[in-house]
Task: structure prediction
Amino acid sequence: MSTALSETKSAINAIPVQGHLRNRTLPRRFPGLFLVFEMNIYGYMDKFVKSYNGGYWEYIELSNGGFYMSLKSDKSFLVEIDSNGFEGTLTADAASLVANLFVYCQLANQHELDYLIQGFHALRDYARLHPEGHLILSAID
Result:
C-alpha cells in the first residue's frame, strides 16, 4: 500500500515496510543509534500525549528518502508540548510525525550526522503535505 500526499506540483509517497524487512530497517537507517531513535520516539509520545500507552508502530519509508515510525491507531490524541505551548488534537499518524521530527532534531543536534539532518528535512517536507500539516508544523515550532 502506498499513500500519496500532494500539494500543487509535488507528491511524496509513504510506503509501509513489509514485515520480513522490519528487523533490518532501523539498523540500516540509524547505524549505531537505532535503539536510541526507537526509544526516543516512545519517550516523546509518552511526554506529549498523556493518553498514549504503547501500541504497534509501522515503519514508513518515503519516496523522498525519508523515514518515520507511525503509531497504528484509529484514535486521535491530544498533543501538549510544554516547551512551545502547542496544544491540539491530532491523528495517530500526525502525532507520530511530531514525535519523529523532535527525535530527528534532538539526535541531529547531539550527533551532528548528515543522515539525521537530511532525514529531518525529508520528513518535514512530507509533514508539510500531510492533511494535518499546519498542526504538525505548529507543534514543532
In short: The radius of gyration is 14 Å. The helical segments are 22-29, 34-48, 92-111, 114-129, 133-140.
